[in-house]
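Okay, is this right?
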Amino acid sequence: MRTSRLLTLVVLSSALGLASALAFEGTRGPDDIAPASSVDMFRRGNLEASLGSTNLQAPPALRDLTPVQAFRTGTRALRAGNTERGVASLEHAAEGGHPIAQWKLGRMYAEGDGVKQDDLRAFEYFRDIADANADEAPGTLRARFVANAFVALGTYYLDGISKSPIKADPDRAREMFTYAASYFGDADAQYQLGRMYLEGHGGLKDQRQAARWLRLAATKGQYQAQALLGALLFKGELGSRHAARGLMWLTLARDAASAQETWIADLHARAFEKASYEERATALAHIERWVGGKRRYR
């Protein structure tokens, strides 16, 4: 996908206001996998890309399979513990343009799951998805994987990939997040975009835009966005102080976060300590209504 084409799509999707991924063993959709949260998938740490790669040759029998058949063969092989056969089959499907096979391989190489960890190779798989499927209709099963690929690319562009041609490019990262957030309505992209506006990363700080994207993500259950939005509302950094509403979001985020994400627990603990009895009680009432499915908080 040429840069000019992507930029046109970003502008159009933003102008039209189109802003509206799970375990591999899941059973969602005909291909039986769905993308996990991109934040979970791409925890940065001290990853280093290896420029070398293992190019597994597909066995002769695979060459006669269609991409869909090769993808299904690969997923069955992985579930059976035959990683070599599974990767070879997925690569055959990916070469035929199967986007979910490309996504699965990208995730495997990003995490070092059954293969040697290789961020550059993961990046290339996600780029292939974005290049070929940027026009996928929002709301489809495939669109979830395409949006997730854009988020993955944005995450890589935030920091770059060590010892590779992919350098840190915040402007490009914001472009990737904006497209996924606006066109596909992806909650992880909306969170990342809100955070960039909040911090002024890749452009000027804009609290109004930050709040907009964080709210969109928070109402979809994106817990990092809930944590940031809650802290901002509790402190009154978006205008008037809304302590109970902020404490509600912080509590929801704390309950959804992993034990390793101590920053969320810390934000909640500080707010809870400062909150009055009335603010805590009101926050609890908000949470009960949220859990009840009303989700009125915009």
Summary: The CA atoms of residues 205 and 221 lie 24 Å apart. Residues 1-32, 38-56 have pLDDT under 50 and may be disordered. The chain is about 60% helix and 0% strand. The longest helix spans residues 141-159.
